[in-house]
Amino acid sequence: MTDLTNLTLADARDGLAKGDYTSVELTEAHIKSMEAHRNLNAFITETPEKAIEMAKASDAKRAKGEAGKMEGLPIAIKDLFCTEGVQTTAASHILEGFKPQYESTVTANLFNNGAVMLGKANLDEFAMGSSNTSSYYGNVINPWKGKDGKDLVPGGSSGGSAAAVAAHLALAATGTDTGGSIRQPASYCGIVGLKPTYGRCSRWGVVAFASSLDQAGPMTKTVRDAAIMLGAMAGHDAKDSTSAPMAVPDFEAALTGDIRGMKIGIPKEYRVDGMPEEINKLWDNGIAMLRDAGAEVVDVTLPHTKYALGTYYIVAPAEASSNLARYDGLRYGQRVMDEGDSLDDMYMKSRAAGFGKEVQRRIMIGTYVLSAGYYDAYYNKALKVRRRIYEDFATAFGTVDTILAPTAPSAAFAIGDNEDDPVKMYLNDVFTVPASLAGLPGLSVPTGLSADGLPLGLQLIGKPFDEETVLRVGGVLESAANFTATPFGQEG
Amino acid sequence: MSSLDKETVRKIAHLSRINVSEEGLVELAGDLTRILDFVEELQEVDVEGYAPLTSVADLTLPLRKDEVTDGNIQQKVLANAPMTDNGCFVVPKVIE
Q1: Which of A378, A384, A438 lies at the smallest CB-CB distance from B50?
Q2: Statement: A4-256 belongs to CATH 3.90.1300.10
Q3: Is residue B2 over pLDDT 80?
Q4: ipTM of the complex
Q5: Could you tell me which Pfam families the record lists for this protein (chain A) (predicted)?
Q6: Which of residues 226-255 of A touch B (CB under 8 A)?
Q7: Do B55 and A212 touch (CB under 8 A)?
Q8: Spatial separation of the C-alpha atoms in residues A425 and A154, rounded to whole Å
């Protein structure tokens, strides 16, 4: 039998339906792979017993003729989703040992659709980072290696999810994206990552970072897999007041392969100074592929692109400082307290011991920009610039159907690089942050390799709630690029 | 307006309720100043007449009936608390 971990989600779904193998067999193969690749540190918590139990239940369900959209398919869950009775840490010391008493809406939707959970994937602490080096539970290692053989970052914050899918430890994984945390690690690990429109997936039960930006989405081997998985995650949820009361389309049906006559926008502002030549070339190749497929390529302008990162690094920390106020050492999480301490002493000691460096920095920047005297100059100003960025996209989408741009300004870098200055790390998000600020869907598709043999992705940005167009064009890009490289060389 | 001194960082750390050592304050002053320098470029954007965008969700926040929808889950609420007593969270003494 072929190695079941090499299957795509779609293949595995069809193989299960045909009875070629059972969910238990599929799940066992992935548990073995997960155990064999512990060096990647992709998981904070492995849940093999739960996985087998879920797989057995799924096989029984299928025998009765009831199969959901993800029936029997083993996946990884980013450890930012609350999972009932299973430790949920957000990669932070402050939540070590926290066992949610409820299930997040997205994981509940996936499980109701038959998905099997292999474990909780590693991430940057509270999803704050672009390298997965801020996790309290250790760095995640990218399964890909450059020519010098150094350990590389998988990207972040959904680094464990990306590494798990790229190394075939899971058929797919959930991620969350606040400023690029699905798309950038997908690009660094050579997989597909889709950040849906803000409001498409419920945020209920997802540990909050920046509530006006956070959005859950699928991380998969193929565009088709992303379409299947998004359909099983999405949907209106009364428990999230920003969840959109809209029907979930059949995303897979959007993959017609026909983009003739569609208009693809190319934003000139994304050709930033100092962009590596190989990224420019990757982008040009992508443009040629879409043109060859019959699409019309149109230049568009997004004049405020340059200000997106600055806007993001005010808005996101401001929301984080408010969201993370809940970690008070009282109701859940770590408490640090000495005899005779006041309530304030306890808050201050618990939060100092529980939060890592980057999280502390962001809470403090957020607190500062929201404080009396600075609110207007920083926070309110950033919100006004955010509107200009939002309107830039709205104007561009008056003439084009989707926008094509690079996902990240580089390939994966070595662990330890960009750590000396927080701002250097932030620059990794330069191409992903604008769509996040505007709440738009963004899909990263691997389309080429760097000179060093590392994967590089291109990103399609769509109109609000038009994931279908993004997926359709992404499918065409995927076929044309024919990206077959794997971290295992030719064998995969 | 963007260079932060140690005393300002001490104040922010207190507002954030995070204990920071003296050396930590100096390091944070450097880091936070670099971040503020970076975001300084927003000042050059003309936003005259543009309203702040707090959410991209194009909807009116829904209202529901004002009625109890859950309850009787005291054990669940307390399950992850570091310290409880008689069905209550335990906090340090806050009154003399």
Answers
A1: A384
A2: yes
A3: no
A4: 0.95
A5: Amidase
A6: 238, 241-242, 244-245
A7: yes
A8: 14
